[in-house]
Fold:
Amino acid sequence: MAGCQGVSSGGSSNDSQTGSLALASTTLSFGGIAPGTSETLTILAANPGPASLTVTGITISTKYFSLNGTSLPFTIAAGQITPINIVFAPDAVATFTATATLTSNGSNATTTLALSGSGIAQEQLSLSATSENFGSVATGTEQSRTVTLTNTGGTSVNISQAAVTGTGFQLSGIAAPLSLSPSQSTTLIATFAPQATGSAAGTLTIISDASNSTLTMPLTGTGISPGTGAPPSSSATAASSFGWQCGADSTDCAGGNGTVAWPNTPAQPGLLRLVDAGTNWSTIATDANVADYDWTGLDSWLDAIALHEPMDVSQVFIFVPCWDTSGVCVNPPASPNGTNTPPGDLTPSGSPSFNTFVTAFVQHCSPNNNCVSNLIKYYEMWNEWDLPTQNFWTGTPQQLYQMVAPAVAIIRQNVPNAVIMSPSATVGSTTYQQDIQTWLNLENTNGKISDWVAWHIYLTATTTTTNIPEVQWTKVGPNLIAAKNGVSGWTNAPWVNTETNFDGNNFAGSDPSFTCPSAQYSADDCTGQIVRWQLLHASAGASSLIWFKWYETIGSTPQFETAYYYMMQYIEGGNFTAPCSSTSDNSGNQIWSCPFIEANGRNALFLWVVTPVEGDTISYTLPAGYTDYKDMAGNTTAISGASINIGPIPAMLEH
Structure:
């Protein structure tokens, strides 16, 4: 089959060979801008090869989109990219669409790009959502939504009133009068607490001296009787929300001689991340000749993945081969056979050697005919580029973009429905928020290539201790999401924590501790933290949480593995209706809860407590309407009184 053909490196040139035109994306969305203004975005056109091609024409179907600075015809050499600038200039408040058609002498003579944009009324205040639907909420309970209010103008705005109308709706978290400086945001919490069954409607209203002095947002919800529910929304939790990493060159999944020993455990996370797995560039590409590539590790993984489908898989690009270094090859502690410097052949149009590797990778099949294009859908374009110790990248963000952007076009051309993750940032950098925004702004300026935004959060506190999940999430989680949402065009982009564990101090010259610190926490504490870290991520909208060396940390410890397994069973197919939140009692206990709708439509609530002495339990008075609870050992217990004991391991209460 064509998708399994490798890349030929030998033989003489063939005049009949042609290039092929690939775009970094099939769509280009300009979002909304004011009529009478314009915005320019860049789409990258790549030629994976094997010969050069000439783009002879670009036609756009409406006058509201046009080319800027692109002279026709132009030639793209094999393995190179060319930016194409397109301008959107609406003349009215309306939605605009068009099709750009590129004509070339490549093997695909015609390539199309869908264009879209909106002309919107110029406003100074904006809300993070145009409406809020709370779904079905049992009477006697409540659901909350966090809404961000932002001053998008160039002068300060004075807010004189913030209120909601409608039976059952409440507003908190904001107190008027309030002043917002340009680009400043504040958050408010809208709550739906129905007292009767049936549909309800309300309105959130913000009054200010902004150009849009009255800002409104419709609120809707439905009160239902306790014990009933509604089907989960389209954002139901997928199996790929549970991620794992284990490499054939580490102790957790090694079968000897670089082969894979698939973990034998019932808890099989749905998204496998290939890093430290013998699949990186510097391991496979032993020299510049594709015929010499070592596919042993990748073949072992492809065959193992094929035996354990369904399984989503992510490939992580990491380390430049020493033969392609731009200087002296210095091996970082984490890479025995590669380096962290930019490739020696890197230009503003890309790295031909990296393009060759990526092309060969996505077109590769194992001897058993298990192919990358069928089995590996997700691609994390580089690992921890902003780590201060520079273990993985010493170049600039611009150089990294120049290297990976053409490769994205190659991936999209060869892998159906590929999902591209941005190079992962890490909270190990003191400027992690700025790092995320630097990268996303690079994409806005030079051409968007990423579908998901990736970052890494460990539970690290010091070189010898860790934070509990609630402390670590509160410390950095909202900051990461705010950094992403603060860049134009990225508010709705999915995000993912592609690497986590208890201890992230793993490149300081000694082996990391990929186990819960027993000196700090009991086995129950550790079990609870594993589940709670997942709940905090999932309820805040994470597309996945991927545990580094999952088997060493979780799968090989029966109590941890059991809790993880049942957590997966409870969550998969369901839907979190609000982020996990906490309240405190007079004894200093933090009671955490996460509202949830199960896959069968039943209303539920995950519940646990963080006590001043980690691991203690307390008696908790339950909200009305809950009939039983499930624990993380698979047991279901009927609720017979007004209270239950809760501890560090979450329980799931059911209506």
